[in-house]
């Protein structure tokens, strides 16, 4: 028996019951200019009919080989991560305000913090942030609070979206944000040394940066420390931390970035996972929450929220941030992913670099220009004549080729940012080369 209106009599009965003449009367508040009279919806379907309809539509989709990165990356996620993270005790977990009934959640967050410290080379990591951009903005605020200075220098090679978020936070906090130009794909360190002064709170660099180039973090830290400024290092590709020397070992004071690559899907750009870690001397200025490990009265291992420097827990004017939550489920997936990958992270990161190097070699052999001759991880910049037309033609053939950089850097016309991960097969690259030869 169906409970849906399936006849004109049913519809008239329903309208009479709610006091309208026709179903159209329910939508009189919608302006006619935004109504689309051309939409014809099918009659109601059963669950089985709806399922088969969706399958038929899905079968018309084409597989697209994505060579797009720029902050969100396509990495393989083991099926066990999906299975475990979707269990109800994890999927519906709430803020662990009562440690006695939240030991599982607290333990998982503690493990996440431990992984982040090991990857970044920092002493302390918080329980995650919204995303890489807000983690960087909060790092800037940390530096300003710590140094009592209000000028911030940020490399132009930092992700443009991150810089937009920084600018918003800086405007709201009366912070002077100054952009340091890039040279040959990385921060212009000569210019940085020239403009740096004793009123600067911090220097911000990204490595690998938005162009995929690996920055000289040690040099950035040295220049910053000479003027008693902090060095903040951010990243968008967390997989690189498996191969490159950690920012902490190179002198960074605060490390932050995007953790989406660790067990989380691109998923149309979100949800994302912000990472924020620092040296222990800055622990009390870090936003969000910190989970600590201790023992209970009977000497058993126990986990608690050690620091909660948020406006709900201490006087609003003393709070380090109004961040009210963390990306708990995404952080949990990152912990599961890292526990599964383990010591293979170095090998996996190496595969990323090897695949990207192969792709670059093939594109250069076709006559395309490598824009920056500098060390990279799994992203690089290529110049292709009529790049937009080439991208459109490749999309028709199932390839999404990079990000046009002139959107963010007008001087980089026809330049594309290409990303290659372990999910990009050698056959995909070879087929791409064949297609490019025919375009």
Describe this structure in words.
By secondary structure, the protein is of the alpha/beta class. The protein folds into two domains: 65-74 and 343-438, Aspartate Aminotransferase, domain 1 (Alpha-Beta Complex), CATH 3.90.1150; 79-342, Type I PLP-dependent aspartate aminotransferase-like (Major domain) (Aspartate Aminotransferase, domain 2), CATH 3.40.640. It has 13 helices and 17 strands. It has a seven-stranded mixed sheet with strand order 2-10-9-8-7-3-4, sandwiched between helices. A hairpin with a 2-residue loop joins strand 5 (182-183) and strand 6 (186-187). Helix 3 (79-85) runs antiparallel to helix 10 (328-341) and helix 6 crosses helix 7 (160-172). The chain is globular and about 80 Å long. The chain starts with 7 loop residues before the first helix and ends with a helix. The model has no long low-confidence stretch (mean pLDDT 91).
Topology summary:
Blueprint: H1 8-18, H2 47-58, E1 65-66, H3 79-85, H4 88-91, H5 103-120, E2 124-125, H6 132-147, E3 151-155, H7 160-172, E4 176-180, E5 182-183, E6 186-187, H8 189-195, E7 200-206, H9 217-226, E8 230-235, E9 254-258, E10 274-278, E11 289-295, E12 301-308, H10 328-341, H11 345-365, E13 369-370, E14 379-383, H12 387-396, E15 399-400, E16 403-404, E17 415-419, H13 426-438
Parallel strand pairs: 1-15, 3-4, 3-7, 7-8, 8-9
Antiparallel strand pairs: 2-10, 5-6, 9-10, 11-12, 13-14, 14-17, 16-17
Helix pairs in contact: 3-10, 5-10, 6-7, 11-13
């Amino acid at each position: 028996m169906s409970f849906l209106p399936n006849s004109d009599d049913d519809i008239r009965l329903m309208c009479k019951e709610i006091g309208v003449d026709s179903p159209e009367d329910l939508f009189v508040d919608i302006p006619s200019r935004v109504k689309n009279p051309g939409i014809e919806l099918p009659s109601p379907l059963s669950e089985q009919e709806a399922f088969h309809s969706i399958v038929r539509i899905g079968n018309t989709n084409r597989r697209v080989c994505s060579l797009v990165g720029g902050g969100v990356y396509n990495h393989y996620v083991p099926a066990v991560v999906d299975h475990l993270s979707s269990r109800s005790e994890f999927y519906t977990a709430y803020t662990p305000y009562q440690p006695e009934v939240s030991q599982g959640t607290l333990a998982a967050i503690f493990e996440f913090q431990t992984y982040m410290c090991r990857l970044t080379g920092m002493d302390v990591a918080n329980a995650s942030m919204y995303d890489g951009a807000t983690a960087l903005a909060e790092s800037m605020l940390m530096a300003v609070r710590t140094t009592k200075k209000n000028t911030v220098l940020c490399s132009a090679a930092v992700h443009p979206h991150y810089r937009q978020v920084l600018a918003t936070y800086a405007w709201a906090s009366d912070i002077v944000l100054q952009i340091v130009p890039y040279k040959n794909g990385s921060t212009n360190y000569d210019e940085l040394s020239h403009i740096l002064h004793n009123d600067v709170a911090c220097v911000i660099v990204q490595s690998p940066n938005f162009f995929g180039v690996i920055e000289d973090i040690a040099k950035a830290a040295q220049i910053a420390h000479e003027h008693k400024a902090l060095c903040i290092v951010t990243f968008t590709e967390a997989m690189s931390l498996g191969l490159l020397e950690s920012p902490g070992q190179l002198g960074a004071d605060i490390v932050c970035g995007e953790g989406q690559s660790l067990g989380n899907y691109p998923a149309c750009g979100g949800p994302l996972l912000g990472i924020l870690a620092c040296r222990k001397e800055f622990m009390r200025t870090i936003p969000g929450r910190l989970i600590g490990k201790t023992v209970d009265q009977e000497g058993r291992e126990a986990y608690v929220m050690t620091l909660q420097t948020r406006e709900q827990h201490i006087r609003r004017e003393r709070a380090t941030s109004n961040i009210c939550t963390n990306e708990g489920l995404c952080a949990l997936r990152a912990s599961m992913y890292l526990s599964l990958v383990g010591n293979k992270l170095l090998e996996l990161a190496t595969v990323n670099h090897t695949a990207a190097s192969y792709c670059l070699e093939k594109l250069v052999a076709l006559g395309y220009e490598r824009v920056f001759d500098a060390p990279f991880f799994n992203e690089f910049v290529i110049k292709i004549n009529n790049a937009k037309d080439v991208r459109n033609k490749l999309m028709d053939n199932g390839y999404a080729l990079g990000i046009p950089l002139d959107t963010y850097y007008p001087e980089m016309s026809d330049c594309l940012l290409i990303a290659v991960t372990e999910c990009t097969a050698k056959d995909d690259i070879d087929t791409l080369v064949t297609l490019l030869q025919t375009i």
